[in-house]
């Protein structure tokens, strides 16, 4: 390594439901090869089953948080840091994570004002092919879509596959997936691997061929036309379209044993797709997993994040929480690779080089040089400060 080297510090996550870690030992080795020294906070990987000894073997220095924050040029995390940690970051340092900047505007504004450079992987331009290795939204959505199906299968008191035994033949589960983006497509593939008969729906017309290529059936809904928006995302439906969609889904949903919903529109409250009436019409023993469940509401009426309820009609309704954290080892492994690809892009000649003319950096760099520079965040923050 040359005279100058960047030091990256991996924080232990502090949110109570966050078991992931920003870099895994395997990726520490890779990052060190590119001339970045790595510090890891004591116990940072423990809840994802990576020990301090694993990090030491990968030639990271395992240190306490105070030393980490004082020595690191780049501080790496998964979820936004808590107030105390954020308050210790200083001018010239760079914070990199999935910082949810659209909802964390006060934190971003505060860090920007103190001269901290803030980089958030959730604003990565996802359609650029050279950015694909950095796409943490995709890697984490894949984990979540897989896990959602396992949770549904676990709560479902029958088989997913058709099984023929001396005691008779079981009918395969009929699974419906609403929303066929990254998480939805992974949910379809996983349910198919478990032997279910899968049907899926999305408002983007491009989703139909993707659904069918995974061996699932596309659900046609009368009265709902294409709602493709920008950048491969869906647009918000008009009120009339939403009414038509809800009515068509209320008729369709009760035919299925298991329902998994994943629909989202960037920066908006998730669209409501399944009413309480549709839930009442489902058969007892049916299972619903709402992956869009949030404090603002989800795709399913009555769902709450991290809560499972058995409704009066015998339907189990699960509001998903932080599913990537539930599969912390796989999620961290993928996230760490995304992060190392981004680091390789940000670091040159022993320093972090911010270049807002670069398409990737223009997306992910949220704050730099004392200002909020991301157009996606600045207006919500009362403009540049
Ligand atoms: P997302 O999490 O924003 O939404 C999930 C799905 O919900 C989307 O497919 C969306 O169309 C759907 N949806 C929204 N409102 C709906 C409604 N009212 N009814 C039915 N479905 C609704 O999406 P995502 O998983 O982040 O992926 C969005 C798109 O980006 C996809 O097309 C994906 O293939 C694409 N993508 C492309 C790249 C790339 O080109 N490298 C990388 C990642 C994702």
Give structural notes:
Helix content is 32%, strand content 17%. The protein folds into 2 domains: 6-134 and 332-381, NAD(P)-binding Rossmann-like Domain (Rossmann fold, 3-Layer(aba) Sandwich); 138-326, 3-Layer(aba) Sandwich (Rossmann fold), CATH 3.40.50.720. It has 13 helices and 19 strands. α6 packs across α7. It has helices at 25-33, 52-57, 65-71, 83-88, 105-113, 136-155, 182-193, 207-213, 239-252, 276-281, 323-326, 328-346, 359-364; strands spanning 6-10, 36-41, 61-63, 74-76, 94-97, 117-120, 164-165, 168-169, 174-178, 197-201, 217-218, 258-261, 287-290, 308-310, 316-319, 347-348, 351-352, 365-368, 371-372. Residues 381-385 have low confidence and may be disordered. The longest helix is centred in the middle third of the chain and has 20 residues, at 136-155. It is globular. With 385 residues, it is α/β, with parallel strands linked by helices. The two termini are 38 Å apart. The structure holds nicotinamide-adenine-dinucleotide. Nicotinamide-adenine-dinucleotide binds next to α6 and α7. Residues 126-127, 132, 135, 137-138, 141, 178-184, 202-204, 207, 232-234, 237, 262-266, 271, 273 line the site of nicotinamide-adenine-dinucleotide.
């Amino acid at each position: 390594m040359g005279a100058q080297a960047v030091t990256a510090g991996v924080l232990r996550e502090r949110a109570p439901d966050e078991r992931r870690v920003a870099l895994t030992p395997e990726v520490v080795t890779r990052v060190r090869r590119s001339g970045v020294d790595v510090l890891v906070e004591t116990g940072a990987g423990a809840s994802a089953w990576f020990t301090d000894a694993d990090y030491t073997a990968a030639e990271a220095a395992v240190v306490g948080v105070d030393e980490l924050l004082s020595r690191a040029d780049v501080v790496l995390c998964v979820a936004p840091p808590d107030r105390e940690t954020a308050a210790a970051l200083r001018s010239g340092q760079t914070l990199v994570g999935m910082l949810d900047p659209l909802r964390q505007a006060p934190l971003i504004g505060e860090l920007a004002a103190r001269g901290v450079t803030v980089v958030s992987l959730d604003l990565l331009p996802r359609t650029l092919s050279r950015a694909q290795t950095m796409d943490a939204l995709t890697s984490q959505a894949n984990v979540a879509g897989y896990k959602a199906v396992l949770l549904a299968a676990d709560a479902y008191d029958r088989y997913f596959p058709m099984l023929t035994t001396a005691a008779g033949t079981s009918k395969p589960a009929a699974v419906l997936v609403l929303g066929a983006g990254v998480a939805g497509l992974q949910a379809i593939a996983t349910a198919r691997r478990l032997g279910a008969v899968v049907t899926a729906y999305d408002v983007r017309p491009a989703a139909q061929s993707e659904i069918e290529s995974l061996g699932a059936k596309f659900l046609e809904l009368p009265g709902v036309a294409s709602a493709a928006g920008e950048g491969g995302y869906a647009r918000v439906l008009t009120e009339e379209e939403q009414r038509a969609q809800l009515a068509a889904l209320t008729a369709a949903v009760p035919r299925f044993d298991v329902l998994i919903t994943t629909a989202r529109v960037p920066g908006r409250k998730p669209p409501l797709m399944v009413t309480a009436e549709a839930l009442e019409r489902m058969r007892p023993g049916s299972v619903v997993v709402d992956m869009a469940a949030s404090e603002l509401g989800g795709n399913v009426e009555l769902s709450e994040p991290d809560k499972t309820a058995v409704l009066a009609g015998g339907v189990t309704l699960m509001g998903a929480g932080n599913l990537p954290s539930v599969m912390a080892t796989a999620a961290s492994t993928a996230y760490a690779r995304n992060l190392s690809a981004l680091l390789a892009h940000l670091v040159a000649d022993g320093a972090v080089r911010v270049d807002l003319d670069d398409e990737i950096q223009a997306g992910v760099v949220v704050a730099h040089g004392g200002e909020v520079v991301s157009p996606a965040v600045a207006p919500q923050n009362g403009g540049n400060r």
